[in-house]
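Extended Data, panel c. Modelled sequence:
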Amino acid sequence: MLDATHAAFLLLLSGDAQLWRIIWISLTTSVVALMIAAPLAIGAGYAVASCRFPGRRVVIWLVQAALSLPTVLIGLLLYLLLSRQGPLGAWQLLFTQAGVVLGQVVIALPILIAFTLAAVQAADPRYAETAVALGATRWRTMWTVLHEVRFGVVAAIISGFGRVISEVGCALMVGGNIAGETRTITTAIALETSKGEFAQGIALGMVLIALALLMNGALMFLQGDVHGTRGFR
Protein backbone atom coordinates (compact mmCIF):
# COMPACT_ATOMS: atom_id res chain seq x y z
CA MET A 1 0.00 0.00 0.00
CA LEU A 2 2.79 2.42 0.89
CA ASP A 3 4.66 1.56 -2.31
CA ALA A 4 1.54 2.14 -4.40
CA THR A 5 0.90 5.50 -2.68
CA HIS A 6 4.50 6.56 -3.27
CA ALA A 7 4.23 5.56 -6.93
CA ALA A 8 0.96 7.53 -7.17
CA PHE A 9 2.67 10.71 -5.96
CA LEU A 10 5.46 10.14 -8.46
CA LEU A 11 2.93 9.80 -11.28
CA LEU A 12 1.27 13.07 -10.34
CA LEU A 13 4.49 15.01 -9.87
CA SER A 14 6.27 13.61 -12.92
CA GLY A 15 3.59 14.90 -15.28
CA ASP A 16 2.72 11.46 -16.64
CA ALA A 17 1.05 12.16 -20.01
CA GLN A 18 -1.44 9.30 -19.83
CA LEU A 19 -2.53 10.21 -16.31
CA TRP A 20 -3.04 13.90 -17.06
CA ARG A 21 -4.85 13.08 -20.30
CA ILE A 22 -7.39 11.12 -18.25
CA ILE A 23 -7.76 14.04 -15.83
CA TRP A 24 -8.16 16.49 -18.70
CA ILE A 25 -10.90 14.42 -20.36
CA SER A 26 -12.80 14.14 -17.07
CA LEU A 27 -12.58 17.86 -16.37
CA THR A 28 -13.53 19.01 -19.86
CA THR A 29 -16.48 16.66 -20.27
CA SER A 30 -17.81 17.50 -16.81
CA VAL A 31 -17.46 21.25 -17.27
CA VAL A 32 -19.05 21.19 -20.73
CA ALA A 33 -21.92 19.06 -19.41
CA LEU A 34 -22.55 21.54 -16.60
CA MET A 35 -22.41 24.49 -19.00
CA ILE A 36 -25.16 22.82 -21.03
CA ALA A 37 -27.25 21.53 -18.13
CA ALA A 38 -27.04 24.47 -15.70
CA PRO A 39 -28.99 27.13 -17.67
CA LEU A 40 -31.71 24.64 -18.59
CA ALA A 41 -32.00 23.17 -15.11
CA ILE A 42 -31.84 26.47 -13.21
CA GLY A 43 -34.52 27.95 -15.46
CA ALA A 44 -36.69 24.86 -15.08
CA GLY A 45 -36.20 24.77 -11.31
CA TYR A 46 -37.20 28.42 -11.00
CA ALA A 47 -40.24 27.92 -13.23
CA VAL A 48 -41.50 24.91 -11.28
CA ALA A 49 -40.97 26.71 -7.96
CA SER A 50 -42.62 29.99 -8.94
CA CYS A 51 -45.44 28.90 -11.23
CA ARG A 52 -48.61 27.00 -10.50
CA PHE A 53 -49.79 24.66 -13.25
CA PRO A 54 -51.65 21.34 -13.59
CA GLY A 55 -49.35 18.42 -12.88
CA ARG A 56 -46.82 20.48 -10.92
CA ARG A 57 -46.68 17.97 -8.06
CA VAL A 58 -46.13 15.17 -10.55
CA VAL A 59 -43.21 17.08 -12.09
CA ILE A 60 -41.64 17.60 -8.66
CA TRP A 61 -42.16 13.91 -7.84
CA LEU A 62 -40.48 12.84 -11.10
CA VAL A 63 -37.52 15.18 -10.55
CA GLN A 64 -36.98 13.87 -7.04
CA ALA A 65 -37.36 10.28 -8.22
CA ALA A 66 -34.74 10.89 -10.91
CA LEU A 67 -32.21 11.70 -8.17
CA SER A 68 -32.30 8.06 -7.12
CA LEU A 69 -31.76 6.55 -10.56
CA PRO A 70 -28.49 4.57 -10.77
CA THR A 71 -26.11 6.06 -13.32
CA VAL A 72 -25.58 2.62 -14.84
CA LEU A 73 -29.30 2.53 -15.69
CA ILE A 74 -29.02 5.93 -17.36
CA GLY A 75 -26.02 4.59 -19.24
CA LEU A 76 -28.00 1.53 -20.37
CA LEU A 77 -30.88 3.67 -21.65
CA LEU A 78 -28.52 5.98 -23.52
CA TYR A 79 -26.63 3.00 -24.94
CA LEU A 80 -29.88 1.61 -26.36
CA LEU A 81 -30.79 5.01 -27.80
CA LEU A 82 -27.37 5.74 -29.30
CA SER A 83 -26.47 2.27 -30.61
CA ARG A 84 -26.62 1.65 -34.35
CA GLN A 85 -30.03 0.02 -34.04
CA GLY A 86 -31.29 2.74 -31.68
CA PRO A 87 -33.44 5.73 -32.65
CA LEU A 88 -30.50 8.11 -32.18
CA GLY A 89 -27.88 5.89 -33.78
CA ALA A 90 -27.49 8.29 -36.70
CA TRP A 91 -25.95 10.81 -34.34
CA GLN A 92 -22.92 8.50 -33.90
CA LEU A 93 -22.35 9.63 -30.30
CA LEU A 94 -21.73 6.21 -28.77
CA PHE A 95 -18.16 5.77 -27.49
CA THR A 96 -17.32 9.44 -28.04
CA GLN A 97 -16.64 12.33 -25.70
CA ALA A 98 -19.86 13.96 -26.92
CA GLY A 99 -21.72 10.85 -25.80
CA VAL A 100 -20.09 11.06 -22.36
CA VAL A 101 -21.14 14.72 -22.15
CA LEU A 102 -24.71 13.79 -23.09
CA GLY A 103 -24.81 11.20 -20.33
CA GLN A 104 -23.45 13.66 -17.80
CA VAL A 105 -26.04 16.25 -18.83
CA VAL A 106 -28.83 13.73 -18.19
CA ILE A 107 -27.30 12.88 -14.79
CA ALA A 108 -26.81 16.52 -13.77
CA LEU A 109 -30.23 17.86 -14.79
CA PRO A 110 -32.35 16.43 -11.92
CA ILE A 111 -29.76 17.47 -9.31
CA LEU A 112 -29.63 21.04 -10.56
CA ILE A 113 -33.39 21.28 -10.92
CA ALA A 114 -34.08 19.85 -7.45
CA PHE A 115 -31.54 22.10 -5.69
CA THR A 116 -32.73 25.21 -7.53
CA LEU A 117 -36.35 24.33 -6.82
CA ALA A 118 -35.63 23.95 -3.11
CA ALA A 119 -33.64 27.20 -2.97
CA VAL A 120 -36.34 29.25 -4.72
CA GLN A 121 -39.13 27.75 -2.61
CA ALA A 122 -37.21 28.67 0.54
CA ALA A 123 -36.68 32.28 -0.58
CA ASP A 124 -38.74 35.11 0.87
CA PRO A 125 -41.65 35.66 -1.58
CA ARG A 126 -41.34 39.40 -1.04
CA TYR A 127 -38.28 39.45 -3.32
CA ALA A 128 -40.41 38.58 -6.33
CA GLU A 129 -43.36 40.68 -5.16
CA THR A 130 -41.18 43.75 -4.72
CA ALA A 131 -39.56 43.27 -8.12
CA VAL A 132 -42.96 42.99 -9.81
CA ALA A 133 -44.26 46.04 -7.92
CA LEU A 134 -41.31 48.05 -9.21
CA GLY A 135 -42.17 47.10 -12.77
CA ALA A 136 -39.61 44.38 -13.36
CA THR A 137 -40.11 42.03 -16.27
CA ARG A 138 -40.41 38.29 -15.76
CA TRP A 139 -36.75 37.83 -16.70
CA ARG A 140 -35.66 40.60 -14.33
CA THR A 141 -37.79 39.13 -11.55
CA MET A 142 -36.24 35.72 -12.11
CA TRP A 143 -32.75 37.22 -12.04
CA THR A 144 -33.54 39.05 -8.79
CA VAL A 145 -34.80 35.91 -7.05
CA LEU A 146 -31.93 33.76 -8.33
CA HIS A 147 -29.44 36.37 -7.16
CA GLU A 148 -30.91 36.18 -3.68
CA VAL A 149 -30.62 32.38 -3.63
CA ARG A 150 -27.29 32.32 -5.47
CA PHE A 151 -25.55 30.20 -2.85
CA GLY A 152 -28.18 27.52 -3.20
CA VAL A 153 -27.67 27.64 -6.97
CA VAL A 154 -23.89 27.46 -6.56
CA ALA A 155 -24.34 24.51 -4.21
CA ALA A 156 -26.45 22.86 -6.91
CA ILE A 157 -23.73 23.37 -9.51
CA ILE A 158 -21.04 22.04 -7.18
CA SER A 159 -23.16 19.00 -6.33
CA GLY A 160 -23.85 18.44 -10.01
CA PHE A 161 -20.16 18.66 -10.83
CA GLY A 162 -19.31 16.20 -8.07
CA ARG A 163 -21.98 13.82 -9.31
CA VAL A 164 -20.92 13.78 -12.96
CA ILE A 165 -17.16 13.69 -12.46
CA SER A 166 -17.38 10.86 -9.95
CA GLU A 167 -19.88 8.59 -11.70
CA VAL A 168 -18.64 5.49 -13.48
CA GLY A 169 -21.60 3.51 -14.82
CA CYS A 170 -22.82 5.86 -17.52
CA ALA A 171 -19.32 6.94 -18.58
CA LEU A 172 -18.30 3.31 -18.97
CA MET A 173 -21.33 2.23 -20.99
CA VAL A 174 -21.67 5.30 -23.21
CA GLY A 175 -17.98 6.20 -23.46
CA GLY A 176 -16.53 2.70 -23.69
CA ASN A 177 -13.44 3.55 -21.61
CA ILE A 178 -11.29 4.16 -24.71
CA ALA A 179 -7.74 5.20 -23.81
CA GLY A 180 -7.00 8.79 -24.74
CA GLU A 181 -10.57 9.43 -25.89
CA THR A 182 -13.27 8.55 -23.36
CA ARG A 183 -11.34 7.15 -20.42
CA THR A 184 -12.29 9.25 -17.40
CA ILE A 185 -10.94 9.30 -13.86
CA THR A 186 -13.50 6.87 -12.51
CA THR A 187 -13.40 4.41 -15.40
CA ALA A 188 -9.60 4.44 -15.25
CA ILE A 189 -9.70 3.71 -11.51
CA ALA A 190 -12.05 0.78 -12.10
CA LEU A 191 -9.86 -0.58 -14.90
CA GLU A 192 -6.52 -0.24 -13.11
CA THR A 193 -7.88 -1.69 -9.88
CA SER A 194 -9.27 -4.72 -11.73
CA LYS A 195 -5.77 -5.29 -13.16
CA GLY A 196 -4.15 -5.00 -9.74
CA GLU A 197 -2.37 -1.76 -10.71
CA PHE A 198 -3.14 0.51 -7.78
CA ALA A 199 -0.70 3.39 -8.29
CA GLN A 200 -2.66 5.12 -11.05
CA GLY A 201 -5.96 4.45 -9.28
CA ILE A 202 -4.66 6.05 -6.07
CA ALA A 203 -3.28 9.03 -8.00
CA LEU A 204 -6.61 9.61 -9.72
CA GLY A 205 -8.44 9.16 -6.41
CA MET A 206 -6.25 11.90 -4.94
CA VAL A 207 -7.29 14.17 -7.79
CA LEU A 208 -10.98 13.53 -7.08
CA ILE A 209 -10.48 14.28 -3.39
CA ALA A 210 -8.56 17.47 -4.21
CA LEU A 211 -11.34 18.63 -6.56
CA ALA A 212 -14.01 17.94 -3.93
CA LEU A 213 -12.07 19.89 -1.28
CA LEU A 214 -11.39 22.76 -3.69
CA MET A 215 -14.98 23.17 -4.89
CA ASN A 216 -16.57 22.92 -1.45
CA GLY A 217 -13.87 25.12 0.06
CA ALA A 218 -14.66 27.81 -2.51
CA LEU A 219 -18.36 27.64 -1.61
CA MET A 220 -17.58 27.92 2.12
CA PHE A 221 -15.34 30.91 1.45
CA LEU A 222 -18.04 32.70 -0.55
CA GLN A 223 -20.68 31.98 2.08
CA GLY A 224 -18.40 33.30 4.81
CA ASP A 225 -17.57 36.38 2.78
CA VAL A 226 -21.22 37.35 2.21
CA HIS A 227 -21.90 37.15 5.96
CA GLY A 228 -19.10 39.55 6.70
CA THR A 229 -16.40 37.03 7.56
CA ARG A 230 -13.43 35.82 5.62
CA GLY A 231 -12.22 32.32 4.87
CA PHE A 232 -13.52 29.51 7.04
CA ARG A 233 -14.14 31.32 10.30
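The chain has a mean pLDDT of 89. This feature is highlighted in the accompanying rendering.
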